[in-house]
Amino acid sequence: MEKVALDLGPIQIYWYSIFIFIGMLIACIVIYKEAKKQEIEEEFLVNLTFNAIIIGIIGARLYYVLFNLSYYMSNPIEMLEIWNGGLAIHGGILAGLLFTIYYCKKHEMNLWKILDIIVVGLIIAQAIGRWGNFFNSEAYGPITTAAKLKSLGIPTFIINGMYILGEYRQPTFFYESVWCIFGFFAMLLIRKYKYLKVGQLTSFYLIWYGIIRFIIEAMRTDSLMLGPIKVAQLVSIIFIVSGIVILIKRPQKGQKELYNMKLGGQNV
In angstroms, rounded to a whole number, what is the distance separating the alpha carbons of residues 179 and 140? Predict the structure, then answer.
């Protein structure tokens, strides 16, 4: 696949960067629209999302670099070349979460309510951002055949793009993207439920994404490793367990803390 979308001589714009940007833009629109319904102060939300995105990108890159440290120690300048790929979503989520915890505590906002709003935007951003991997010819699975991919109903342009290193590969980026899209629409429906408790959308996200990432990571051939362990699978297990714990424990701590109760800029 062609990595460069627009070549302006000294400046090159990569497809990877475009899809990451589009994903973040759509996420912000989704988040802002819901936050407005919940009567959350615009200034709080703008500052939160702007800083969380920047910190999240830095965290995603640092996470990837740390698990490929020997390579980047020999090629230090490439640490900055994020347009070539190398943003680990788990690192971005962790960094963004830490900032969100800090910022909500500072402004005395309900952390779980804010997270419930954010995760809906986050999952659609992940669905869109995965297409950057397609143009970078990364995040793919084991060797397969064109006939097998066609039998799965995968579009021809994706099959053609999965011809990498002389072999057809499983488009794991595509499987994850589709799963995240389904998750996005499921969450849009779930949050309309009258008796939805605060924190339950976050738990749904953790379980939903944790399941697909664990499965996808078993297929991928370019995983980040911690010895013999695929790091993303380990984190996925933590996601799933955390999601289940939140789903069980949160209602017990706040039986009247419903998602559709307005924050109005105040802690509830």
Answer: 16
